[in-house]
Amino acid sequence: MMKVLALDTSNRPLTAAVLDGNQLLATTTITTERKHAAFALPLVAELLERAHLQPTDLDRVVVANGPGSYTGLRVAVTIGKVLATTLKIQLVGISSLATLALNFSDTNRLIVPLFDARNDLVFSGVYQTEPAGLKTVLPDRHVAFSRWILELQKFHDNLLFVGQDTLHFVDQIKESFPTAVVVSGPKALPQAGELGLAGQKQAVVTDVDHFVPRYLRLTQAEADWQREHPGEEQHNYVEHL
């Protein structure tokens, strides 16, 4: 059985878990603090103790590697790289948006995880659950929300929006997709247990030294142009610059 540590510090929630194969041994999610650099390592040590494991017992560390908070992303990625290097264990990175989508294995709707990136910008993507696991329908991106709504129109109303930040956009979502499902609250929190399960099926990082967070942020000029041209493709930005 593979012993796995899973960690997500990419946004306000801090969630970590220790698994032995498909068995969840210990997990904790904290939503009241944003000092992930101070809390993450003590939490990892606590979970390993509760699981009656030593760090040397681990086979793999799985981290959510973005998009999300600049500082938050660096915490999990750094811990993952240090553990993988010092313990000589495997490292896996999974999208922070995909981590949210993993909470909905029982839906037939397309899943649209969403993080507020401020100034009417969002981090988002589109996922679909399949028997083999989560499938990426549209890759993660940093995009003006008005443009993203237009791009999602091709899926009609068969959408499930998820994220603590969906409350900021719920009126626009419901106006464009009247029968879409919008999920916030506990179901919209990342679960490190799900992250750890998914990470056991993913390819490992082959070059740990060059493993970095996926920030995905647009430049301010790109963001401004997209807001002014919501119906046009992103490559037109360069053509019209």
UniProtKB/TrEMBL annotation:
Residues 32-225 form the Gcp-like domain. InterPro entries: ATPase_NBD, Gcp-like_dom, T6A_TsaB. One of its GO terms (biological process) is tRNA threonylcarbamoyladenosine modification. GO terms for cellular component: cytosol. It comes from the Bacteria. SUPFAM superfamilies: Actin-like ATPase domain. This is Gcp-like domain-containing protein. It comes from Fructilactobacillus florum DSM 22689 = JCM 16035.
